[in-house]
Amino acid sequence: MRKNLFVLMALLVTAALVMSACAPKPTPAPTQAPTKAPTEPPTKAPTEPPVPAGPPDLTGETITIYHFGDLSGPYASITAPLIHGAEDAVKAVNEAGGIYGATLEIKFADDAGSIDEAVAAYDRFTGENPNALVMITYGSGEAEALAQRFAEDKIVNITAGLSAQAFYGAGSGYTFGLGPIYPDQLAMTMKFLSENWATYKPASAGDEIKLAYLSWPTAFGQGGLTAESRAYLADLGIEIVAEETYDVSPTADTTTAILNAQNAGANVIWTNTLAFGPAALINGLNSLGLRDQFLVAGDNWTMDLATYAFLADPAYGVGLVAPFPYLWWTDADNAGVQYAQGLFDANARPSSEHNVGYLLLVAGVDMVVKSITRAIDTVGYENLTGEAVHNALVEMSPFDALDGVLKADFSGGSRSPHMSQIRMIQGGPDKFIVIQDWIDTPDLRPAE
């Protein structure tokens, strides 16, 4: 019996093993392939102007600026100090290492006061250098005639010709000034006089300002009168009672212009001239015995040592009023004035050139160097263009040229400074006394 039981158990185990072996194998769980993230097409970063990694070494390179003006015509004696100020300033820049080691070169052309010659000089310079960066001009006529060309060719023009038309006329945009435009200067001065008439009016004058505009028949001479300045004066209640011209000559006869102003009842004379221009007028007033009947005012260039060279008597200059958009040589505590005086002395310039032209062009070259340096820092030397210099002048505004000798702000579409003092001659040469400290000028840009 027990034997049969063992046999039966053995058979059951064997059957179980057979059934297990014959059973279907378990199906493994399906393996899911890893999901690959969708591939986006690569996005190309927007192209930006190349930014230099640091100050470059431009040793062996040359950066040229160009200037042209009258060195043999009617303005020769006036232009010479401007030219020498620019040349001495460039020399000093190179002695100090240039611009990142690059030599700054300055090339001049004498246009003899001729617009045609100025255009010819421009064509010659641009023919020599298709990538000209900066040109300096000295007269309103040249600045007006070439304003569109400067913009088309994207060449910055730094100019002492403070013409509203040159800066803001149709097609302009690359002409920048070394002072406020003449309409702003006229408006600023007349506003000051209207607010302080009781202090400065001639003894015989009434309570209202009657203005006579006596000036040269040139773009510069007529530069103060525009639709905007006429409207501004009218709003001030100032009537222009006479408009007269006289010759661009040291020996000009101003008698007719003066007598016409007197007959019209004028008590203020404005002249948009310089050097022998205001001198001829003031000499004429004194010769006629009429000096005390008028307050004489003029553009910024009238108040200068160059005027004294043509006055019959230095005392005749006393009482002249003018906007003064820069410092003067007597502001000797200013570092920029000290620097300019050092250049003047080192180059043994004659005392006759110790005037506003020399000082202002040292400041002008400082402006040029600052803007070129910023342009190089922004786009790199290999991409340096007049457009980059233009953009630098705008981007670095407001700024002080030559440690505050000139205050410039070319932001907001402005291409002329809008800050100035007003000064009066209250003594001999150099006694240019501040009667109104730095303030904003009216903004009489012409309507577009």
If you had to describe this structure to a student in words, what would you say it looks like?
By secondary structure, the protein is of the alpha/beta class. It folds into two domains: 62-180 and 330-417, Response regulator (Rossmann fold, 3-Layer(aba) Sandwich), CATH 3.40.50.2300; 183-324 and 424-440, 3-Layer(aba) Sandwich (Rossmann fold). Helices cover 39% and strands 17% of the residues. The chain is built from 14 helices and 14 strands. The protein has helices at 2-22, 76-95, 115-128, 140-153, 164-168, 182-195, 197-200, 227-236, 255-263, 276-287, 305-308, 335-346, 356-379, 386-395, and strands at 62-69, 103-110, 134-137, 156-159, 175-177, 210-215, 239-245, 268-271, 295-298, 321-324, 399-401, 406-408, 419-425, 432-440. Strands 2-1-3-4-5 form a five-stranded parallel beta sheet, sandwiched between helices. Strands 7-6-8-9 form a four-stranded parallel beta sheet, with helices on both faces. Strands 10-13-14 form a three-stranded antiparallel beta sheet, with helices on one face. Helix 2 links the parallel strand 1 (62-69) and strand 2. Helix 6 packs parallel to helix 8 (227-236).
Topology:
Elements: H1 2-22, E1 62-69, H2 76-95, E2 103-110, H3 115-128, E3 134-137, H4 140-153, E4 156-159, H5 164-168, E5 175-177, H6 182-195, H7 197-200, E6 210-215, H8 227-236, E7 239-245, H9 255-263, E8 268-271, H10 276-287, E9 295-298, H11 305-308, E10 321-324, H12 335-346, H13 356-379, H14 386-395, E11 399-401, E12 406-408, E13 419-425, E14 432-440
Parallel strand pairs: 1-2, 1-3, 3-4, 4-5, 6-7, 6-8, 8-9
Antiparallel strand pairs: 10-13, 11-12, 13-14
Helix pairs in contact: 2-13, 3-4, 6-8, 12-13, 13-14
